[in-house]
Design a protein that fits this description.
Elements lengths: L1 H11 L4 H35 L5 H6 L8 H11 L5 H13 L5 E2 L4 E2 H36 L4 H14 L3 H15 L20 H35 L2 H8 L4 H23 L1 H14 L5 H10 L3 H29 L1 H9 L1
Antiparallel strand pairs: 1-2
Length: 349
Amino acid sequence: MALDLLSTTTEEAPPTRTLRRQRLLTALATRLIRLVLLLTAVAVASFALMSASPVDPVDAYVGGDIAAIGPEQRAQIAERWGLDDPPVERFGHWLGQIVRGDLGQSHTFNQPVVDVIANKFLTSLALMAVAWCLSGLIGFTLGLIAGVRRGRWADRVITWWAYTLASAPTFWVGLLLLYIFSVSLQWTPICCAVPVGTVASDVGLLDRLHHLLLPALTLSLVGIAPVVLHTRQATAVAMSSDYVAFARAQGERTLGLVVHRVLRNAAGPALLLQFSSLGELFGGSVLAEQVFSYPGLGAATTAAALGQDVPLLLAITLFTTVFVYSGNQLGDLLHTWLDPRTRRLEAAR
């Protein structure tokens, strides 16, 4: 009896500061090791796939002028890029450059790869950030309404709309919006991040937002559906729980129930899903930037793939891996913070 009582007291005692610090350091080290292993696996797989590609990098680089260069010039280009070396040696050379912080030179843009990614990502970041915020806010709001009104006409309309969007490809939505708002109504520009023939430094904020509106709307529409459906399910489960039924019996109204009892429970899965969707967001931005000729990182990825720009493609792959992994980890941390049940499970491990 005494031992049982002592055991119970020890389990319920809050962790000390030293124990919390040890748990934090262990969690950070574990996530860092996972990232290193993931980057290693992605680097090996990406390099193997690009080495096995049937497209010759020199032919892709020269393009239509292939007949204008002789075999000697072609051999010089291949020797300069190290294409004559065995794949294992080329991978070791590239990996050594990465460890030293040198991502190589992009022959598509004739710039260091670091500069290309930095410039293009800043352009794509504005597009993805606006689309991510819009899809999260609109999707969460509609999911709450559908979950609270489950089985009624509002729920049916929102759910049908979400399923329709979930099955719509990004490029199809982009082309449809482009036809309606740019070609027919002429409310939005038909392409590019700035007006054609204008230097980017001379363009004001309103013009930039005007050009950003339609690509961001395309990306946000595609990303709304998963948030709506998961939030609707979490809201419906919370609304049918015992504690909500008890609060309703005490006279609390629906708005108070949603704000005080349901909102936090529904926000956890929505945040986790929203941060986990960064990979899909980046994939959608590649298609949206192609449709709207938006000069971001997605368009740079397409140009690098068409030109067999191996250093730029590999660097974008590693950068995207870190970007998506960071989003997943941040979503996991926020979900753990919002949901006490998840915190208890993590503490019990």
